[in-house]
Amino acid sequence: MMNDYIDSYYSRTLADDYRRAPLEGDVEADVCIIGGGMAGLATALGLAERGVTNVVVLEGKQVGFGASGRNGGFVSAGYSLSPAAIVKRVGVENAKALLGLTQEAMDVIRRRVEQYAMPCGPLVHGKLNISWFDRPKEQKANIAFMNETFGTKLEFWPRARVRDLYLSKRYFDAIHNPDSFHFHSLNFTRGTAAAAEGLGVRIFEDSPATGLSLDGDVKRIRTARGTVKAKQVVVCTSGYLHWMLPRLRLSILPIGTYVMLTEPLGDRLKTAIRANHAVSDNRFAPDYYRALPDSRILWGGRISMATNPADLDRLMLGDMLKVYPQLAGTKVDVAWPGTMGYTTHKMPLIGELKPGVWVNTCFGGHGMCATTAGGETVAKAIALGDESWKLFRPFGLSFAGGPAGPLAAQTVYWYWQLRDVMKR
């Protein structure tokens, strides 16, 4: 069956091609979730696992069509906002609680992959954050802060060890996180959808919401061919939200990022990369990548207001060759864009906008784990009356610049790129 997924490594390696029908007619639900990416599906599965199974998910294209099925596949605890900045904003105890939600989500993800036999593995453990700057004391101080404050198990890797596995003169020391892992993000997203359906959740694809009536005890969500009447609504649309909720839309920056897949490199891969960790660096807009079992490299990076540059292959290959010039001559099999939702405070939007209307969105830059944390938080709030969502109150709606927001974000990106250059 034909699918609408963008051409990518993930769409080329789907575990199945099952396509769900669009909504036809009127249905009723306890909860309607708008958006079938990881945030929406994690919410649906979290509700179903707690006995709330009369749930409808509306997806405008296909589940995982957006950033959930186009990313690097890295799974790590935390958010885009650094732990130190979270502590500064809300204090140590609340920061520990917020980070704890994502640490718990790591276990939830591992458990679900096994319990529901999701075809997204193997889960390859270990992530390196490699420094572009010769500042080992900063690395060690960061490790000490994280391990002492949040109970992490981060390790310092000296540059000799780093360069033995990642043969680049750009690199210095690294922070190794043994608890992080990487996997096939689109198959995981689709596996989450299948697991939710197995517990009674109804998912409709090709069914974008076209109108919302969110006042009163019964909410109405209209699509082109039907209507959902629900007691509760959860908005999980991230960078793809249109203007049906203007105040929420004005709080979201839709930002482009990009990934490429190289041709198989065979033995040439070992001239640059000799391990299979997930890798990122510590610049403002880092590269992130991993070597695949067939000797290809999945390479991502950049932040831009442009959703799909015409010369994307050249740009991404150029970024890789800055790190690994010995791979000159490598061909790009495919490169693709993705749109992420960011907030100005770099934390997700999680909480109740008004009675019965929830939001679980904006996980740009750190989404594969945090989306599950958000889904669990909102699911527990709806199903059990849990109030963990109130931890996110300091990170609420904030004006993101409206139509000029992406341009402002691009300007900030250029500024921090310059800062990174000056640090070397």
Describe this protein's structure:
This protein has 424 residues and is of the alpha/beta class. The chain folds into two domains: 9-71 and 186-253 and 344-410, FAD/NAD(P)-binding domain (3-Layer(bba) Sandwich), CATH 3.50.50.60; 122-183 and 256-339, D-Amino Acid Oxidase, subunit A, domain 2 (D-Amino Acid Oxidase, Chain A, domain 2, 2-Layer Sandwich). Helix content is 32%, strand content 24%. The chain has eleven helices and 17 strands. Strands 3, 4, 5, 6, 11, 12, 13, 14 and 15 form a nine-stranded mixed sheet that branches. Strands 1, 2, 7, 8, 9, 10, 16 and 17 form an eight-stranded mixed sheet that branches. Strand 16 and strand 17 form a beta hairpin. Helix 2 (38-49) packs parallel to helix 10. The longest helix is centred in the first third of the chain and has 24 residues, at 92-115. The mean pLDDT is 92.
